[in-house]
């Protein structure tokens, strides 16, 4: 790996059209899992000017003990409830604009029962354990360059948008609107970030402050304190490389300005391009889909390796075949920073965590309605929560890993 270089990552806010879709899709996932922890959900969302479209496959388990108000025994989805969830998500994000309004937008629901062929391949039966919901490869990554053990460019990109959203929701910055993007470029020396060389923030805003039309310079001064709070002391880039609304105006935004789809921000959701990505999206999928659960497990393992001091950076790849329980491969790469043998590390990790789909869900407690909160500001680098949210961010394997070596 090169020691000296510039590296850039971007993030998008909860009001970005694609993130609106992720939020709605995960609201549907949570509703199903709240009613039935073993529910199967694959929900895609599309948004554009005053239109929300939901589509996908869903199934409740035969042994579901919880309420089934979202799906009848015949497999018919309650479209009114699905529409209500979509509208509530949009309202919470903050869209009540002429071109995209939580109450006025048209909502179409095209959710239906899951394919019997898929169900047959992934369900446990007899001596056969539950298989992976699909083939594929998933990556997890961790680095010690931030307290969250995340790459600094993506972490700063998430943090600034999160702070701006909090100020917007609280009313402290009423001129900001929901749609926004961020981008941080950092200078690395000897493989470590040492300064920020450029920041780009594009944020939707109200047209006027009272009677005065807002200009990009006005928005720049609104955004500046958030950037300064996110970056380490003395890291603000040169003024000529601090770009805020470079086009000069960003009033029309969100789904009215651009259409959105579930799963289009997979690099934003993970490591900002600092690590490989298997290609599978997370949002809208229940945890039996290894696209989601195995990516969480890979992050969990990589984070614990770095937290244990066994490497400065760690990449883990898992691979699966549809209907097959155990991973086909578990690859560990510490990028030359490791302090232990990588093959032994792979063996130890597999001893500590059962990496079958069922094993991952059990170990991390994933069969819970904990996903809507993951839809914006990254699935990783967050704090583990008491109700099981972001459980893959725990570092509870550290002691066992240290003892193993």
Which helices and strands appear, and what pairs or packs with what?
Layout lengths: L4 E8 L4 H19 L4 E9 L2 E9 L19 H15 L12 E8 L2 H7 L13 E8 L8 H19 L5 E14 L2 E14 L2 E2 L2 E2 L2 H15 L11 E3 L15 E2 L4 H4 L20 H18 L5 E8 L8 E5 L8 H11 L4 H8 L33 H7 L1
Parallel strand pairs: 3-4, 7-10
Antiparallel strand pairs: 1-6, 2-3, 2-11, 5-12, 6-7, 8-9, 12-13
Helix pairs in contact: 1-2, 4-5, 7-9
How is this structure best described in words?
By secondary structure, the chain is α+β, with helices and mostly antiparallel strands. The protein is built from 10 helices and 13 strands. The chain has a 4-stranded mixed beta sheet with strand order 1-6-7-10, with helices on one face. Strands 4-3-2-11 form a 4-stranded mixed beta sheet, with helices on one face. The mean pLDDT is 94.
Helix % is: 25-40%
Q: Approximately what portion of the residues adopt beta-strand conformation?
A: 15-25%
Quaternary structure of the protein: single chain
Main β-sheet description: 4 strands, mixed
Please state how the strands of the largest beta sheet are arranged side by side. 1-6-7-10
Kindly, what is the distance between the CA atoms of the first and last residues, rounded to a whole number of angstroms? 26 Å
Number of strands: 13
Distinct helical segment count: 10
Elements, N to C (H/E): EHEEHEHEHEEEEHEEHHEEHHH
Mean pLDDT: 94
Shape: flat
């Amino acid at each position: 790996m090169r020691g000296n270089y510039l590296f850039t990552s971007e993030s998008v806010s909860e009001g970005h059209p694609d993130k609106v879709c992720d939020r709605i899709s995960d609201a549907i996932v949570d509703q199903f899992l709240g009613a039935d922890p073993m529910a199967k959900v694959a929900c895609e969302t599309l948004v554009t000017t005053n239109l929300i479209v939901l589509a996908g496959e869903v199934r409740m388990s035969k042994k579901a003990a919880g309420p089934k108000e979202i799906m009848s025994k015949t497999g018919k989805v309650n479209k009114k409830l699905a529409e209500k969830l979509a509208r509530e998500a949009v309202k919470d994000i903050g869209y009540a604009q002429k071109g995209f309004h939580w109450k006025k937008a048209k909502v179409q629901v095209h959710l239906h029962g899951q394919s019997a062929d898929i169900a047959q391949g992934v369900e446990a039966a007899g001596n056969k354990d539950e298989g992976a919901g699909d083939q594929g490869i998933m990556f997890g990554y961790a680095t010690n360059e931030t307290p969250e053990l995340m790459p600094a460019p993506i972490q700063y990109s998430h943090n600034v948008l999160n702070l701006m959203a909090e100020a917007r929701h609280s009313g402290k910055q009423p001129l900001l609107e929901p749609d926004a993007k961020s981008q941080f470029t950092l200078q690395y020396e000897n493989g470590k970030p040492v300064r920020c060389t450029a920041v780009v923030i594009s944020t939707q805003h109200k047209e006027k402050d009272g009677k005065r039309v807002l200009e990009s310079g006005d928005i720049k001064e609104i955004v500046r304190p958030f950037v300064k709070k996110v970056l380490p002391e003395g890291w603000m880039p040169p003024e000529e490389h601090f770009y805020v609304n470079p086009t000069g105006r960003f009033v029309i935004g969100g789904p009215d300005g651009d259409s959105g789809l579930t799963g289009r921000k997979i690099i934003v959701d993970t490591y900002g391009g600092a690590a490989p990505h298997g290609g599978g999206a997370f949002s809208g999928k229940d945890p039996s889909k290894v696209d989601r659960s195995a990516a969480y497990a890979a992050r969990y393992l990589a984070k614990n390796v770095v937290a244990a001091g066994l490497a400065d950076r760690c990449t883990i790849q898992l691979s699966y075949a549809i209907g097959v329980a155990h991973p086909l491969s578990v690859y560990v790469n510490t990028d030359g920073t490791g302090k232990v043998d990588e093959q032994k590390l792979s063996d130890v990790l597999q001893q500590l965590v059962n990496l079958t789909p069922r094993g991952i869900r059990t170990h991390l407690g994933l069969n819970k309605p904990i996903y809507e909160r993951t839809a914006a500001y990254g699935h990783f680098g967050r704090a583990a929560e008491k109700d099981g949210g972001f459980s893959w961010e725990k570092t509870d394997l550290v002691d066992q890993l240290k003892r193993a070596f």
